[in-house]
Write a structure and sequence with these properties.
The chain is an alpha/beta fold. It contains 23 helices and 33 strands. Strand 20 and strand 21 form a beta hairpin. Helix 6 runs parallel beside helix 10, helix 17 crosses helix 18 and helix 21 packs across helix 22.
């Protein structure tokens, strides 16, 4: 019975906002304030796209963010975005700020119970009536909105409350400056969130930044939003009028001095000249008493990251559970210290590991795989780590469990091939895929070898045994052999390679105790059913000398030639034959190598490169559920560390370009299929490569897929690594 380990990690739900130039300043400000009301919201990027293209400098940034949900301006063609970029959200939703709208997520104040010694700052009942130029500044930088709702009150009932009204509003800046026990949404929205990205030659991470924008400067406000994703000691946003007011307020500078150990303040602006900003700085009373200022026009944003590695994702809890069947349930823990039962809108990442498998890697899924057949919840997806993420909504929170199905390799690959891919219409996609007779033979071969690609490579790369099995497989008829036959042939092979000397029988020589070593390896191959045991028996009636398998041996036997009765001879020497299933996967006929051999060796070569690796044998592909003639087939179909790989295998590279009666070759078919199933990698493989035609075939496929993000690789099977089964020759 298989056992599976399921590890779940709780985190906030990551959002991405895509807007166009028509999205105005006030609307962006609404998004900023809305994000402060949800856990993790301070780290949700807002990206402007033009003509449905994400700016090049933001592409890696967006893909690294790996959004769970995308909210988009109605002027964005979201289908185009999903087709062209490596993002795979639970769902997408258009932004409509004209009606009551809220982003999906967990209320920021869910985290308030972590800080019972702090006072939650709320607007008073008349706060909305206050008219002041700084109210927007308080809203953007501290999350003080005009209204409070019952959920906020409920979540902060264990905290003391500071209400801001017309009586204390004038003292608000002084209160913020002197009371270090206040609790703001902006602070809570950043807790238990992801590590910020480090910047190459980071000069800004240790500085406090003032971002000074125009009264309706979209560019400055977007910079403030997205700058939070990089390391910083603090960001404060102002419009120019707010800046002019605050820099002359002594309480503001008391507040700024609370940012201890900062060497300087950088003032950045896209809207205002350095001359104008410098003039304002010089107008600050007692400017020399404050920190050193540096005014900078930031024209290199977004910044170059210090490295391209994936940054660690923060999780608020981790739980590992074990299930012992392929179908079961996993418990969804409640968020720690939550004080109401219906918190929703958070996410969990799920890793599945087969405990019977010696590999330490989790089951990794190809990007954009459909996960609904694995996880029994409405919103799930394949994340950038090639594992599963799910959205925990009210329903999941209430039940506390979700169903899970541990998928087989065949299920993962078939669902990936037939799943709806972005940009592919139902009339131009694979509807079903089935194994063929060749697939079944290959699968039988792999079962004999216990799916051990390492052993396959060792055996077939061995100078003697690899050659011997291949040569024996070419023979038209069953070829029985004895231990003595192998000893003689191996001795001859050692002599030819110069590995035999006059001292061959010495205690430390390769040829020492050769009969014992040969018996050991024959015994090993018989245990695996690669070789079958039996006897050659000569019939006295018809003189046929025929091999009989061990399970057919009796005291009295029937000759398979003339059907005469014969006695089992005394002192018969055991003879062995290669399992017919192994033989037919190597040579179909004496002069015709079977394509399965190249496929098997190619899979074994690929396995060397990946920690998590699984495959299916060849698949026939159909674009209609009811048709019987396939569109084509895939020789190679596998997943390596979450990368979906398809390919074409030929014994001789010349066969890649051979055209069929319709004028197309196997590579043209492969390209057509690749456009439908969108693999990460295409592999071309052969055993014999004449005139570099393998490389030419690879370049041909690359040219055909020049505008698609698909890697093309080619593999030549290299055989005869001298005596790779070294333990035989010791």
């Amino acid at each position: 019975m298989n056992k599976y380990s399921v590890t779940i990690r709780g985190r906030y739900t990551r959002l991405l906002y895509l807007i166009t130039p028509t999205f105005n300043y006030n609307s962006i400000q609404t998004l900023v304030i809305e994000n402060q009301t949800i856990w993790g919201g301070r780290f949700h990027p807002i990206i402007q796209v033009d003509e449905n293209r994400i700016p090049p400098e933001y592409i890696n940034w967006v893909e690294n963010h790996d959004p769970d949900i995308i909210y988009y301006d109605v002027n964005v063609d979201i289908a185009s975005i999903l087709t062209n970029y490596n993002i795979n959200p639970y769902y997408t939703e258009p932004l409509n700020l004209e009606t009551p709208w809220h982003a999906m997520g967990t209320n920021t104040y869910f985290l308030a119970s972590e800080f019972k010694d702090r006072k939650a700052v709320f607007p008073g009942s008349k706060y909305w009536q206050i008219k002041d130029d700084l109210k927007d500044w308080y809203a953007i930088n501290f999350g003080i909105s005009n209204h409070i709702n019952n959920a906020d009150r409920n979540l902060t009932r264990e905290n003391s409350i500071l209400e801001i009204d017309s009586q204390n509003y004038e003292k608000l800046l002084s209160i913020i400056a002197t009371d270090d026990k206040l609790l703001f949404k902006t602070m809570l929205s950043q807790l238990y969130s992801e590590q910020e990205r480090d910047i190459v030659n980071n000069q800004d991470g240790s500085c406090l930044e003032f971002i000074v924008g125009g009264e309706d400067s979209r560019e400055d406000l977007l910079y403030y939003v997205n700058r939070a994703l990089y390391k910083n000691k603090g960001l404060i946003y102002f419009t120019i009028s707010q800046f002019q007011i605050l820099i002359k307020n002594a309480d503001f500078w008391v507040f700024i001095r609370s940012f201890r150990f900062l060497p300087k303040i950088k003032i950045k602006s896209y809207s205002h000249s350095e001359v104008k900003l410098l003039k304002l700085v010089k107008s600050i009373p007692h400017v020399s008493d404050y920190k050193i200022f540096e005014i900078q026009k930031d024209e290199k944003f977004p910044y170059e990251l210090n490295n391209e590695k994936k940054y660690p994702r923060y999780s608020i809890f981790q739980s590992t559970q074990t299930i012992i069947t392929s179908n079961g349930f996993i418990n969804i823990p409640k968020l720690p210290k939550s004080i109401i039962p219906d918190i929703h809108g958070w996410s969990i990442d799920i890793d599945i590991r087969d405990l019977e498998n010696t590999s330490t890697a989790p089951i990794l899924l190809p990007k954009r795989s459909k996960t609904q057949f694995i996880i029994g919840t409405q919103h799930s997806r394949t994340n950038s780590n090639n594992t599963i993420s799910i959205l925990v909504d009210r329903q999941v929170t209430t039940t506390g469990v979700i169903g899970i199905h541990i998928p087989t390799a065949e299920e993962i690959i078939k669902f990936r091939i037939t799943g709806s891919n972005y940009g592919i219409t139902s009339d131009n996609k694979i509807q079903r895929c089935t194994p063929s007779d060749d697939s079944n033979r290959l699968l039988g071969f792999m079962k004999i070898f216990s799916f051990d690609f390492t052993y396959i490579e060792k055996l077939f790369n061995d100078y003697f045994w690899g050659n011997w099995i291949i040569d024996t497989s070419k023979k038209e008829n069953t070829y029985p052999f004895s231990t003595a036959t192998i000893v003689n042939e191996l001795t001859e092979a050692l002599t030819k390679t110069g590995n035999i000397t006059a001292a061959i029988n010495g205690p430390n020589e390769i040829g020492a105790n050769l009969p014992v070593k040969v018996k050991n390896i024959i015994g090993e191959l018989c245990e695996k059913n690669i070789l079958l045991k039996g006897f050659k028996i000569k019939c006295k009636t018809c003189s046929s000398n025929i091999w009989y398998s061990l399970d057919r041996i009796k005291n009295e036997m029937i000759c398979t030639g003339c059907h005469a009765t014969m006695a089992f001879p005394i002192d018969s020497e055991m003879h062995y034959v290669i399992n017919e299933l192994v033989r037919k996967n190597i040579y179909r006929e004496s002069n015709t190598p079977d394509g399965n051999y190249t496929v098997i060796r190619s899979l074994a070569k690929l396995k060397e490169y990946y920690t998590s690796f699984y495959f299916t044998p060849q698949l026939d592909l159909f674009t209609d559920q009811d048709v019987h003639k396939p569109l084509g087939d895939l020789d190679l179909v596998c997943v390596g560390d979450g990368k979906f790989i398809i390919g074409e295998c030929k014994h001789n590279s010349e066969a890649f370009m051979v055209r069929e009666s319709n004028g197309i070759n196997s590579l043209d078919k492969l390209v057509s299929i690749a456009k439908m199933v969108q693999p990460d990698i295409i592999v071309l493989a052969c055993a014999i490569d004449k005139y570099d035609k393998l490389q030419k075939a690879g370049k041909y496929v690359k040219h055909k897929l020049h505008n698609r993000n698909i890697m093309v690789q080619w593999i030549k099977i290299i055989e005869k690594s001298y005596f790779s089964m070294d333990y035989i020759y010791r």
